[in-house]
Amino acid sequence: MDMRSERTFLAAVLSTVRYPLILVDREGGIEAVSHAAADLLTVSPEASRGSSIGEVTGSHGRLLHDAVASVVASGTSFTTELRSQGRWFDVVVDPIVGETGTVSGAVIHANRRITQPSAE
Known about the structure:
- There is one protein chain.
- The chain is an alpha+beta fold and 120 residues long.
- The chain has 3 helices and 5 strands; from the N terminus they run H-E-E-H-H-E-E-E.
- It has helices at residues 3-14, 45-48, 61-74, and strands at residues 21-25, 30-33, 78-84, 87-97, 103-112.
- Strands 2-1-5-4-3 form a 5-stranded antiparallel sheet.
- Strand 3 (78-84) and strand 4 (87-97) form a beta hairpin.
- The longest helix is centred in the middle third of the chain and has 14 residues, at 61-74.
């Protein structure tokens, strides 16, 4: 499959994902997003491609940028909760590990919470 076919296939798959999913490279540059990622972005999913995760996620930009950097460096997942557009999300940032075992980026995925987190 050539690069253009791979991107078309990935776009088709991401169009079916019903929750926020963002693929980023090692530096936090957005490679691809699901349509539902609009819940976490300050720009449209289409306009976010090529931007830094820190630039298009509003007040959560620094947190998500730092999470990606940590995940890429350590190869371990990061989890947090955040509020976006009046809703709470459980967010996980997982490393994308290539065939050689090196981390090539991260995937950010979120599930909408029905209730807000309890105060501790």
